[in-house]
UniProtKB/TrEMBL annotation:
Protein name: Glycosyltransferase
Ranges for domain Glycosyltransferase subfamily 4-like N-terminal: 9-161
Molecular function per GO: glycosyltransferase activity
PANTHER family: SULFOQUINOVOSYL TRANSFERASE SQD2 (PTHR45947:SF3)
The keyword Transferase is assigned to this record: yes
EC numbers for this chain: 2.4.-.-
Source organism of the structure: Collinsella aerofaciens
Keyword NAD: no
Length: 363
């Protein structure tokens, strides 16, 4: 599998989750990483039997990256090369894979936006021609990269039971952070990148906090935008009530400590954290730019980013203090099954096997 980075973000979690399942089912997996690697994630991968090769950085040493990638694919004798990305910028990796000794070339889209929209539009038409398999985390993400070509939706799946509401975890985490039970916590779990829209999130909280001064905003996640987010927090009139937790090793328990989830993302391939939050019984207030694939329950409330922060705060406040049983929820029929790794893994494996059969397998 090829990925730009191996860090605690959405793509990183998906790559590792499916890699673990492939290993568990007897396959061999190598990760070729062309950017930042967090040692904790590398150690986790290696502990599960995954080989990790860190290539030269794609952005700072592009030529060195392409040369190392070509060499790794030629020498690796891989049956399948699965390229993960967000846009037509995966084009070079697909060309290199197609020119290598790899039998099947797969591409997997994880977003509906990117940093280089012009290059994306130029390169996108060539992507389907280079792929034997096309995957996306949602229908919107698939159309963003593959257009009307025949792609398959392979959801960002995980262990569902791990994210169910845990009252004991709620009590322990709140005690650990020194937060009383009656304090209302707005939560957000996301990579600290501009597309996650933390600037607007903080404005929403400021409006909510003005009417509910005992409330807290809890932000979990790290990333290249951390310095900017920290500056926004320090400048906020509600800065004493905003918690920046950084990367959290086990966010599953963190959801239980929260009272609602706010996610004003500018663009998303899916927004898997929203599925996790709904499983934990949280009311989720979400940008209307987030794909409806992430709506698995009646706790998903989409609001346009053209609305004011005050309007968002009002929507949250209108539902904030309603009593409800978080251990129960009204989930859409069949909506959770695609996110169960035990079932969605077989979609991936089946697509691999079908492509290998079409190509005649390894010579």
């Amino acid at each position: 599998m090829i990925t730009y980075n191996l860090v605690n973000n959405g793509i990183g979690k998906v790559v590792l989750t499916y890699s673990f399942e492939l290993i568990r089912h007897g396959h061999t997996v190598t990760l070729l990483v062309g950017g930042p690697c967090e040692q904790e994630k590398v150690d986790e991968a290696v502990a599960h039997g995954i080989a990790v090769t860190q290539l030269p950085d794609k952005r700072s040493d592009t030529l060195g990256y392409f040369e190392a990638l070509s060499k790794a694919l030629d020498e690796g004798q891989f049956d399948i090369c699965h390229v993960h990305g967000n846009s037509g910028m995966v084009f070079p990796e697909l060309v290199i894979a197609k020119c290598s000794r790899v039998v099947v070339v797969a591409c997997h889209c994880h977003s509906t936006g990117c940093e280089h929209p012009v290059l994306h539009r130029v390169l996108r038409p060539f992507v389907p021609r280079l792929c034997d398999c096309m995957f996306a985390c949602s229908d919107e993400a698939g159309k963003w990269l593959f257009g009307n070509a025949g792609f398959s939706v392979i959801p960002n799946s995980f262990d569902l039971d791990k994210f169910r509401f845990d009252p004991q975890a709620r009590l322990e985490l709140r005690r650990g952070y020194g937060i009383d039970e009656d304090v209302y916590i707005l939560g957000n779990v996301a990579r600290l990148n501009p597309e996650k829209n933390h600037a607007f999130l903080i404005k929403v909280f400021e409006a909510f906090h003005a009417e509910n001064p005992e409330s807290i905003l809890m932000i979990a996640g790290g990333g290249p935008g951390e310095k900017d987010v920290r500056a926004l927090v320090e400048a906020s009139p509600a800065h004493d009530s905003i918690m920046l937790l950084g990367n959290v090793k086990d966010p599953a328990k963190l959801y239980s400590a929260m009272d609602c989830f706010v996610f004003p993302s500018i663009h998303e391939g899916l927004g898997i954290v929203l599925v996790e939050a709904q499983l934990a019984g949280l009311e989720c207030f979400v940008s209307s730019n987030v794909p409806q694939d992430a709506c698995v329950s009646d706790r998903f409330h989409a609001i346009s980013l053209t609305e004011t922060a005050e309007r968002w705060a009002g929507e949250i406040a209108a539902m904030a203090f309603w009593p409800h049983d978080r251990s129960k929820g009204s989930f859409r029929a069949g909506s959770l099954e695609p996110f169960d790794i035990s079932s969605s893994y077989h979609l991936l494996e089946g697509a691999y096997e079908a492509a290998l059969d079409r190509k005649g397998g390894r010579e």
